[in-house]
Amino acid sequence: MRKARNEKENAIREKLIDELYGNKYNQFIGFEILELSSTYSKSRIKCDERLHNSYGSIHGGALLSFVDAMAGATGSMSGRYVTTVSANLNFLLPAVNTEYIYCECMKLKTGKHILVFDIRVTDDSGNLLDSGEFSFFASKVNVLEDNLKIGQ
């Protein structure tokens, strides 16, 4: 993972990673964070048959929730928790014949209250499986407590 730009960004990232890894659903789907910043993130899940649909590929609902969690964490790296406003994921190819599914989130826009992310889901070979766009509302709730002093 890339080095954080400053202590505050590092503290936010550490808290969000702890929350993501501590979440029972994320534990179930096998969430693994590879990169996490306010403008870009990358994560992966193992193609486990517990996540398969009746056709033998990863269920679209599992993919959508995986992407939503990662895009939400990327949005929350801005310092305030976010909530999903809209989620669009185009299922282009089935997730088969791959050990992992990768999700990359790239920030497209930061407005006063709305953050928009471009989403790319790929397999081990880099084939584009899904693409989409997610929008989030930035709440007034800070990820870090206001009185938290970084460096102590």
UniProtKB/TrEMBL annotation:
InterPro entries listed in its UniProt record: HotDog_dom_sf (IPR029069), PAAI_dom (IPR003736), Thioestr_dom (IPR006683)
Annotated keywords: Hydrolase
Ranges of residues in domain Thioesterase: 55-128
GO MF terms, alphabetically ordered: acyl-CoA hydrolase activity
Keyword Hydrolase: yes
CDD domains: PaaI_thioesterase
Annotated coiled-coil segments of the chain: none
Keyword Hydrolase: yes
Protein name in the entry: Thioesterase domain-containing protein
Source organism (scientific name): Butyrivibrio hungatei
Source organism phylogeny: Bacteria, Bacillati, Bacillota, Clostridia, Lachnospirales
